[in-house]
Amino acid sequence: xxxxxxxxxxxxxxxxxxxxxxxxxxxxxxxxxxxxxxxxxxxxxxxxxxxxxxxxxxxxxxxxxxxxxxxxxxxxxxxxxxxxxxxxxxxxxxxxxxxxxxxxxxxxxxxxxxxxxxxxxxxxxxxxxxxxxxxxxxxxxxxxxxxxxxxxxxxxxxxxxxxxxxxxxxxxxxxxxxxxxxxxxxxxxxxxxxxxxxxxxxxxxxxxxxxxxxxxxxxxxxxxxxxxxxxxxxxxxxxxxxxxxxxxxxxxxxxxxxxxxxxxxxxxxxxx
Length: 272
Hints:
Blueprint: E1 3-11, H1 14-19, E2 27-40, E3 45-59, E4 64-75, E5 86-88, E6 91-93, E7 97-108, H2 121-127, H3 129-154, E8 174-177, H4 191-200, E9 206-213, H5 219-239, E10 247-255, E11 266-271
Parallel strand pairs: 9-10
Antiparallel strand pairs: 1-2, 2-3, 3-4, 4-7, 5-6, 8-11, 9-11
């Protein structure tokens, strides 16, 4: 029998829904359900159809995967061109045509096989440019006043003048970024600004806040992920000489504070 089966199917990747997205996951378990119609070309018959199934995929590489599709299909009884009805207590009852399918094959990804790279810290700094400009202006004014007082001392015009040193200027939070679903710091370059902050204020109190993007993974998964990201950055602060007693860790879970959404896969460090 030559036939065509056209269906609209809804698929649910339970591996991602239950465990959160992971680009390194080998096995994905994807149940689905569908409705549509069948056409028997040999007998010129059309019939309604429905299906339940599960698609399994096993990742071989960035581009290749093995797939196994198991499904159960059901349709009207006349799709095979024969009347399969039978009588129950004098009433004609139609039977349905049913069949199972099993398909195994290879999948090749024609598009991108990886996510965009983690955003550079310079991109985030641009979001705070007005704040940074104001801080730089304050620092320039303080340095100018310091130079003026030092010149007075050198010229002996103000014997009582003392050298004034600008010890610290408040800084904006420093961001450290992570790849999707990961708690390992994506780029060590992000820690350069963190190190500069600790060298200027090693004895200060620090707050490390972890985040995840709200569009990936469940709320509980993102809460744990944001905690791990904050702890990873806190461990780096300890390596830089900051006492762990001076570090407060906060986990914000999944958020959508920044655009694009990938900018929310981060942890921030700020002086308390």
